[in-house]
Amino acid sequence: MIVFNLICTECEYPFEGWFDNTLAFNNQKKNKLINCPNCESSNIKKTLVAPNISKKSNSKKIKNKKTLASNINKIKKIVEENFDYVGEKFTEEAKKIKYGESNDRPIYGEATVEQTKELIDEDISITPLPFQSNKKTN
Length: 138
Known about the structure:
Blueprint: E1 2-8, E2 14-19, H1 22-30, E3 44-47, H2 61-82, E4 84-87, H3 90-98, E5 107-109, H4 113-121
Parallel strand pairs: 4-5
Antiparallel strand pairs: 1-2, 1-3
């Protein structure tokens, strides 16, 4: 089972969806079987999900580290397959999306602490990723 944080592109209502796997989510979205609980729109998109890590006893510490690494790798794969990499232009592109100057879509890239504060001040939702991208832009 995988949990995705979803958001309605019509009314911007955030909600969760539980799926067997990413393929199940993609099939249900394609067939318009996922609807916003607030406005019933089928125009939804995925947002980032934090890994679900439960606290275990010390005897299972090594397993937890492997599970954490596995979850981070899964998140990285989902982000790289479904989000647009905008590199160091992340702050600029996030603002363009917020103000309707660019197509609304999930993006990821790099931002400094100052740029991150700027986005927060402009009420732009961001989530730090638990990995660095291997992608480079020109």
